[in-house]
Amino acid sequence: MPRDNYAAGFGYQWNQHRLTQLDSHSGIPISRNRLINQSRWSFAELRGKKVLECGSGAGRFTEVLCESGAEVTSVDISSAVHANAASNGRFPNLRLVQASIYELPFPEQSFDFLFCCGVIQHTPNVERTFKTLFRYLRPGGRFCVDVYAAVIAYPHPRQLLRPITKHMPPAKLYALVEKAVPALLPLSLKLSAVPGVGQGLARLVPVANHRYLGLTDRETVRSWSVLDTFDWLSPRYEKPQTRRRLQRWTSELGLREVSIERHRGLYVIRGVK
Known about the structure:
Layout: H1 8-16, H2 23-26, H3 30-39, H4 43-46, E1 50-54, H5 60-67, E2 71-76, H6 80-88, E3 94-98, E4 111-116, H7 126-133, E5 137-148, H8 158-165, H9 170-192, H10 198-202, H11 218-233, H12 243-253, E6 256-263, E7 266-272
Parallel strand pairs: 1-2, 1-4, 2-3, 4-5
Antiparallel strand pairs: 5-7, 6-7
Helix pairs in contact: 1-6, 9-11
């Protein structure tokens, strides 16, 4: 992949935050719980199976999948693969590849499970991305894909900033975020603690607030906020999707046992090919 691809900002952030979201670093099973809650898969089901993870970032879910005993093939278009390799290269059941989802170097219908989390809304053509993924899943294989939910993702203050920030060099934007978070995060945390309306009030402040995750260490809270605030502001593409559009795509692909659930600001799509 060329160094200056559309996901260069993601490569920068994951090499800055190689360990931040790994359960083995935080000591809290945040990534493990999210993977299991969204996919509804068990480790027993995954053991020995061929799993394709698309858009792996620094490898927070790669680590969990490898620990399940699955044969994991993890792909990312960005230089985040270097962060993933540094953290998860110890696993003998991991194959790590840098490639575009549109040009994956694998035989079609060669995987038992497909996992793609936090990715497709940031690609140039979300429908093409979604449909391309399923070329590599065998008939009867199971999948879990999520995407930002429209319209909930639109009325957020980051949308006022993104027309500027998505064009900024990653290092410059990251430096600004590092300065802004210590000033704005305490306000966001106070607002989020207001009974009944805290979550809505916190959305008025353009920094990521992970109060709901149960993080307590001050430096960990700051690091997660810097990471996800940058993640909000830097992507070249951000294209949330409606439930109706997702239903149409799954129908056109002939997918079975499809479930589309709202998880906070995401739609999680599960089912069987």
